[in-house]
Amino acid sequence: MWYYTESKATMIGLATMFSILTAMDIIGNVIVCVLIVKFKDMRIPMNYLILNLAVADILVALFVVPRFVLFNAYILPDGMTGTVICKLLTGGNLSWIGAVASAFTLAVVALERYYAIMNPQGTQLTAAKVEIIVPVIWLLAILFNLPLLLTDRYSTKHKTCMENWPEEWMAKSSSLIWLVVTGYLPIFLMIGLYARVVYQLWFLDEDDGDSTRQASTGSTGVLRIRRRITKMVFTVSMVFAACRIPAQTMYVISYFSRTQYHSDLLHIISVAEVTANSAINPFIYAFVNHRFRQHIKELICCPGLCKTKVDAFIPGQDSTQDATYTTEVVQLQQTSQEEAPRYD
């Protein structure tokens, strides 16, 4: 019997919900990874951060499955073996490593957007820097999750993985630290940075701010491209905030709840919101970013059947759009090395 409920209808409902969320998460983010790896014009530093975010989101879904989908499909052995399996597979700890990595990655993306827009002549993000940033993100995520890894154990009484804190205040303190470090801090950082960036790109007074915007963006074409990229990552960040703050808050409340029922309910809702957040991101990329949409079409269409080719300019076919886009890329290459050719 599942630890969270004895109702078969509830178990089936929750398993179905988490099955849908995890399937959407894994399939969508795998497609994002394939697009960035497969198409040369997608292999730019910013997209490498998006790739890292997609990997973190996949990790969230993969290790939610054993605890909330396949809970009746296995029985863990007692003793140390069961505890080790809990820590590494069925306890969900690796999901939380992915959740922390995604929060830190979005914070780095916000910093990149800020410096790229506000100080375009300064040092920009490069592939070499990403090779340093990404391992640091994952190292910090692992270190941050060490307390959970150390306290997780297999409960022979409840037949499930449970946290075993030496003192009750430790569990409550850990949940509060989670709320601050992976919730409020990155979200407030993103809000502050994007507020400056959005003002610079969209709301700077046309008369008084022309010289400032021109110095920052270099041309109308570059401004248009930077707006598109910023719109995508800003949307992802705001959805992250909308999902994670309630989820993290409920996670904290679950540790302070006096009744086991409310504690379990809040915990399940918080896990569902984090999983939903990871599943939504690929749809945001496709909905907001034209380049992702075009490459998805190429990926799913049979050779020769797709009318729209992303990298080829065919005279007489949508020439206005292609010419405009080509002009933007030339302007972008002339003014900065921030974005890659033909990125939209």
Automatic annotation (TrEMBL):
User: Could you tell me the keywords of this UniProt record?
Assistant: G-protein coupled receptor, Membrane, Receptor, Transducer, Transmembrane, Transmembrane helix
Q: How does it sit in the membrane?
A: Multi-pass membrane protein
Which family is this sequence assigned to? Answer: Belongs to the G-protein coupled receptor 1 family.
Q: Which InterPro entries match?
A: GPCR_Rhodpsn (IPR000276), GPCR_Rhodpsn_7TM (IPR017452)
Residues of the G-protein coupled receptors family 1 profile domain: 28-285
What PROSITE patterns does its record include?
G_PROTEIN_RECEP_F1_1, G_PROTEIN_RECEP_F1_2
**Record-given protein name:** G-protein coupled receptors family 1 profile domain-containing protein
GO CC, any one term:
plasma membrane
